[in-house]
Amino acid sequence: MTEWPDAGVLLAGVAAGLNPVTLEEITARSKLMSRMDRKYLVPAPVMTRLADELGDRFAVLEIGGRRQFRYTSTYFDTPDLLTYRQHRQRRRRRFKIRTRTYLDGGGRWLEVKLKGARGGTDKHRIPYDGAPAHALTPEALDYLDTTLASGLMLPRPASLGPVLSTDYRRVTLVDRSGSARLTCDSNLVCHDMRQELPARRDLVLLESKSAGGDAAADRVLRRLGIRPVSVSKYCLGVATLLGVPANPWHRVMRRYFRTTPN
Rounded to two decimals, what is the model's pTM? Predict the structure, then answer.
């Protein structure tokens, strides 16, 4: 089967053709800490069509002359994979805990994503520079206590440890109004400290973030025949590397990963 070109290369070309926006401008305009997220697995050439359709309504995040950035995230879970099971069972109230390191100069953050009963996502984070990416400090545990209690009225799990890390490249497209954002991820590699698994390089994992969940990009993708998928990098990596039950994601796993773990 003939595959499309490398998505990371194509995304770099898409980003080069857009006007830049700074992180400070995004922060000043953003209305998206509470938002609706929709995810899509998009063949690389569709990204070119999507960018053409969106036109100059969107700009691209640029920092230090870069428009594509390397990320690594480490996810924490309980020994029995509580947060994974919550996601798999589609619990209305669930959460995800990770450290995220911006390898191209953005520092490190501890992030907590809360999924509420109404389906929205709230992201909370604090700076984590100087702390290890694969460990939760006492200050981090205090932050988790407060965030889970106030956001979901849930206690922090008693035992949390690193389960999975992901590496990937990201291009971020931003609606100039601040009402929507697209994160476009390519070259994903999942690893659990023992083995690693690369995703297909010809697909983009695109996430559309907007206040109402039906932004211009969602409408364009729908017109192009691309439908949302309910999935996360963490869940895909855990399901594939650890071989745990993954009923909702079998089709996505077969499509996104073509190789066996190394």
Answer: 0.89
C-alpha distance from residue 179 to each of 18, 19, 94, 123, 213 (Å): 18, 17, 25, 16, 10
Q: Give mean pLDDT, residues 207-233.
A: 88
Q: Would the pLDDT of 100 be above 80?
A: yes
- Residue 246 is which amino acid? A
Q: Which residue has the tokens 């079998």?
A: 250
- Give me the domains of the chain, ranges plus CATH numbers: 7-256 (2.40.320.10)
What are 213's two structure tokens?
């969940």
What is the tens place of the pLDDT at every residue in 32-75?
555 678 999 999 888 889 988 988 889 999 999 999 999 999 99
Return the DSSP state at 57. G
Contact 11, 60 (CB under 8 A): no
Contacts of 112-118 with C-beta under 8 Å, sequence gap 24+, read: 112/143, 112/144, 112/147, 112/148, 112/151, 114/147, 114/148, 114/151, 114/152, 115/91, 116/92, 116/151, 116/152, 117/92, 117/93
